């Protein structure tokens, strides 16, 4: 169940929006899998609002809640040499600060 603290952020993305995962490699605890960074996917659902685990890992418990999304990637987007069914997909839960609109210039 999402943790609420009297209101969080309004989600930037909605179900069906095309997004790209940022390619950054900041130091410290990172929850977003490396293999999806730079990949394009589609928001499958807004999963709720939670405290940022990348901050919680350092004992910072007073941070605001952040939208979390389930993002669906086509397997061939993630693994270019994938030989399986072209309809196969991979779902990953990713926090909003790792996402950008798919049509935006890569960061």
TrEMBL record:
Domain of life of the organism in this record?
Bacteria
Boundaries of every Nitrile hydratase beta subunit domain copy? 10-101
Q: Which InterPro entries match?
A: CN_hydtase_beta_dom_C, Elect_transpt_acc-like_dom_sf
Q: Where is the signal peptide?
A: none
**A Pfam family assignment:** NHase_beta_C
Q: What is this protein called?
A: Nitrile hydratase
Q: Which organism is it from?
A: SAR324 cluster bacterium
């Amino acid at each position: 169940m999402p943790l609420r603290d009297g209101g969080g952020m309004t989600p930037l993305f909605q179900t069906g929006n095309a997004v790209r995962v940022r390619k950054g490699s900041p130091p410290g605890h990172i929850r977003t899998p490396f293999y999806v960074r730079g990949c394009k996917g589609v928001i499958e659902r807004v999963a709720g609002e939670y405290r940022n685990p990348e901050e919680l890992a350092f004992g910072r418990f007073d941070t605001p809640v952040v939208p979390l999304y389930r993002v669906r990637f086509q397997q061939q987007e993630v693994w270019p040499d994938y030989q399986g069914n072209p309809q196969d997909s991979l779902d990953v839960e990713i926090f909003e600060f790792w996402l950008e609109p798919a049509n935006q210039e890569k960061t």
